[in-house]
Design a protein that fits this description.
By secondary structure, the chain is mostly helical. It contains four helices and no strands.
Length: about 90
């Protein structure tokens, strides 16, 4: 069952990655950095701009901070369930 093994490896990698993000961004200094990034990355304001290049740049900044926030919030149990279900579907 190599696919089940791959699912287990994927789940372990996600757990480790989540822990890394939490170690960095839940520390006192990490919280300050994330707060600063959020202020400058259009988290609470629009990226709409007449200049499409500027808007794309701003959207990229926003996307990166949202990724950091999402990595820290990943629900490991739900993610594990989804990966295992997909693994079962792939094996059919």
């Amino acid at each position: 069952m190599p696919d089940e093994n791959n699912a287990d490896v994927m789940i372990q990698q996600i757990k480790e990655r989540k822990q890394l993000y939490q170690d960095v961004f839940e520390s006192p200094n990490g919280k300050k950095v994330l707060e600063d990034l959020s202020r400058h990355a259009f988290i609470n304001k629009t990226t709409l701009n007449e200049n499409s290049n500027r808007m794309a740049f701003s959207e990229g900044m926003r996307s990166l901070v949202l990724h950091i926030q999402n990595m820290m919030k990943i629900d490991i149990e739900k993610t594990t369930e989804l990966i295992k279900k997909q693994s079962e579907v792939d094996n059919v």
